[in-house]
Amino acid sequence: MTEAGGWPGGHPPTAPSGGLPPSATTDRQPLLQLKAVSKRFGAVQALSEVDFDVYPAEVVALVGDNGAGKSTLVKTIAGINIPDSGEIWFGGQHVAVHGPRDPVALGISTVYQDLALCDNLDVVANLYLGREELSPPLPLLSEEKMEKRAREVLKTLDVKIPNPRNAVAALSGGQRQSVAVARSVMWQAKVVLLDEPTAALGVQQTKQVLELILRLRNQGLGVVVISHNLANVFEVADRIVVLRLGRRVGTFDRKASSEEAIVAAITGAEFGKFQPEA
Amino acid sequence: MSTATAPSGQTDSAATSAARAFWTRVTSGDVGSLPVIAGLILIWIVFDFLNPNFLSPRNLTNLVVQIADIGIVSVGIVLVLLLGEIDLSVGSVYGLGSAVMAVLSVKYGWAAAPAIGAGILTGTVIGTFQGFFFTRFKIPSFVVTLAGLLTWFGAQLHTLGETGTLNLNDPTIQQLAGQFYSPTVGWSLAVVVIVWLGVDLAITRRRRAVAGLQQTGLVGDLVKFGAIVAVVLGATAVFAADRGVPLALLIVLAFVVGFDLITKRTKFGRHIFAVGGNAEAARRAGISVNGIRVAVFALCGTMAAAGGIMGASNLLAVNYNSGTGDTLLNAIAGAVIGGTSLFGGRGTVWSALTGALVIGSINNGLALLSAASDVKFMITGGVLLAAVTIDAVARQGRQRAGV
What we know:
CATH architecture of one domain in chain A: 3-Layer(aba) Sandwich
Helix content of chain B: over 70%
Oligomer: heterodimer
CATH class of one domain in chain A: Alpha Beta
Largest interface: A-B, 29 and 34 residues
Radius of gyration of chain B: 22 Å
Number of strands of chain A: 10
CATH class of the largest domain in chain B: Mainly Alpha
Order of helices and strands of chain B: HHHHHHEHEHHEHHHHEHHH
Largest sheet of chain B: 2 strands, antiparallel
Shape of chain A: globular
Shape of chain B: globular
Strand order of the largest sheet of chain A: 6-7-8-3-9-10
Strand content of chain B: under 5%
Number of strands of chain B: 4
CATH topology of the largest domain in chain B: ABC transporter involved in vitamin B12 uptake, BtuC
Structural class of chain B: mainly alpha
Strand order of the largest sheet of chain B: 1-4
CATH superfamily of one domain in chain A: P-loop containing nucleotide triphosphate hydrolases
Distance between the termini of chain B: 38 Å
Radius of gyration of chain A: 19 Å
């Protein structure tokens, strides 16, 4: 991990809008960096000495079998799990993460599989949930301000929703996922973690969401995608990080790797060491 | 100003698009307050056919005063239902709140204002207490408030003591349900309300135009405005033909309008809907879910005691039976009949008033026909079942329309 320290205390240069993946890890500084992070739950070593980094304007896929530690890693980044050892760096600085609020304040947001949307509220209300705008001097909601910005955000991300004043319950799965993603990035997010964003979506809706992920990358965000679906991973990811039994067992450049190699890394066949019996 | 963003040649296309939007809402299960208003009109027509005195100004004025207490209690129930919870203690809190006021006024000679204030505060304290138990120990609200139902009824009996019945002599307390304002006052109020609604509509449209947002359908807005104006003027005319505008109605309306504003246009109200819709999502959005819950239970207790005081004023007394019997069931049934969902997150405070009007009309109409309690209970039960069925069917419609 020699790339740290190139920009002491500062921010990395803004990403090119083309969003080409960093070819190697030499020229630019990662936005988010985990150094030798370990986490143990009782007898289970969920993460051991995992290094993980995300650069601006790239999509990193996190893959692995069930129990490989993907969720633990994401929860560690999101501040839900506090690591037993290891360091978290953000924007070139060592940061202390004590709870879920710290990463959010840094600009790391997470979209969980359940999306956490209120079906009974409209899209605007969901985007602003917990951050409602008021119209001073009265303590009343400013629906106009919120709706205006909401429409702008949805337009920037090219999220197509008939009317942001419709209740979220009336949206399709892909639209709901898009709303959840839009909410996570509209508050100065620099890194977005997406937990299984395409699970349970149809073909068309999966395409919508994958396109949205690419747009986030092109706007300079670092995107981490957890997915079981290698086809989807190969469509959007610049780098693929494979976890197995709590260890990082490989990092693949998407362009230079095959699905077979990834599957081998996931299952351990490559090393012939952890091969499952059945 | 409204033409800034609206398409040209709007009258015709606007009307059809408004109709289409309305139909989409109905088929997707967002039926709102339409069934209850249709039901209310039907009930009124039937009862007036059976007894022409039903729609007389005198009887309608009586009806409005009769439902004031249940309407106020129901406002609190709507808030709790929006959270997806229930408060079964409101009948006992109604009784205890009015008993506290009566004892302070009659036995201790307190002036009206502090006695009423103490009665209402009793409800606030009880609601906060129940909300605390519900959130802190995660006991279902239904059980906490069921315990409350028994406990506070016992406290009511204890407060009233051996005398049992306390007659209220204080003129101010009597006025709550007994005061009527002259037609001049009534018409002035009606004008103020209509102007206020019109200005509010204009301001909202103007703000949207300034923000460059698409306008809501002008036709729909105007139809709604026209309907409200008709109801306000009609009601004022009815009251003018009898004793005048009842203070009890103004108090109910103040509560309904106030809480409607709070639920629809404030952060607190938005958060009530969020907790009722998806508590986990609300929590992750940084909303203090338990804070909202305790506050809503406190408000529900407050409204229950306030309703009890209105009921006591109407009865001119407080006794062992105050708040017992069908008070609780009518308050909950009213909110649900009015269109507030039992499943949380959907509904409006106005359903407290419309639901209370439906139940009150049934009771009042059957009393005019000298029908006994047996018929009254069976009919109210049927109406409640119909309302809940509409809610459940609408919910299925939403689930079909969504996802």
